[in-house]
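Exercise: predict the fold of this chain.
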Amino acid sequence: MLTPAKLFLKRLTAHGKFQWSVFRLVVDWIVALYFIVPALIVAGFQYHSWWSAAPVWIERIPYSIVVLVLYRVATMGTIRLFVEEADQLFLLQHPRWIPRLKQLGMAYSFLFHLTLSAAIIALLAPLLLVHYLLTPGQLVMLFLYLSVFRNLSAFLKHFLALRYVGWRFWLGSIGLQLAMSAVFVSTLLTTKFALFIWSGEIILFAYFTYLSMKFRLHLKGTFSRDIEHEQTQRLKFIALLLKGKVDKKPKKPRVKPFFFTNSNLIFKQRTAVNGLIELYLKSFVRNGIQIKLYLQFLAVGIGLLALPILPKTIKIILWLLLSAFFCNWLKAYWYDVIDSPFVQMFSWKDTDRQNAAQKGIFYVMLPGYSLLSLTLGLSSFSWVDTLGILFIGSLIVYIMTSIIVTWTFRKAMK
């Protein structure tokens, strides 16, 4: 027999399976096996070393920066109710089901915030204990404070979204953020060692959270807003992945492209391989979306590699990972070009397609990856070492394009 608890578990399981399916679309087993798993292993060794001695880069980060990061974590929470549009029919036959479902959803939100707060504090524990010299008791109090503050801020933001829309909502959000930041930051900075003040605020915030749960449970006339909120939360991961990829209002087509307006030949020798390479290069530089993504990728990569707080080992690992992601993205666009109706009108040998893919991706990837290599060298090594890194980076581009393109074509042939 179906009960509110069973219905909640069913929806929670379906939500988990949906998010997992979205994650698998982004990260396949090859990326997980060759990049994510090694990165986690290296991160595990780094984390273990932090318990013995704090890393050198942490000396440049004051405690106030850690407090701001924790505040950001504390205000990113939300409330899940797990109601659906079809539940309107249930209201006539089971009027007590919806409140029970919302109650279970709020309990799940509370446990989720508690677990996430514990994970964040556990991740920062060696730095907080070894470098910032917090005691174990202060660390526990920090965890409790972060947990109750995150729960209470989630309710406050939720009530604000239910009450206001448009500019009133944004104005209220700014005021709420200013008030919460003043309380959170001042407490963690000025009362770092006053456990009795922390205890008082934790009890007060927990009591306000309890009142918020009771008030939200008996709040009427919000069903349509609850449905909209749940749909947003369910599709939040997909919305993040598809950000900027939604088709917009079509613009007036440009008569001439910015580059290769006369469509002159790039290669003097006319072969099938050179023809495909030229088609790929011209298509890429004429595509505004691809150029924008290319520049965004470089901006993010250069920003990460230039961070002074990252150790050399982490930068080198990140540099190598960026080569794989860079090459895979350019490979995906290669298939968009090669599978276009115009190209499919002609018959191409598999060897020509493979050679053209390897060379075309190499030509597009080399300039951008050279900038990443230059950033790595200038930020962490000497000028002589930078020249060597540029040369090694060129070899990495060649090897990476050869491996990924060859593996892809072999997989397609099976």
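Check your answer against the key: Residues 244-255 have pLDDT under 50 and may be disordered.
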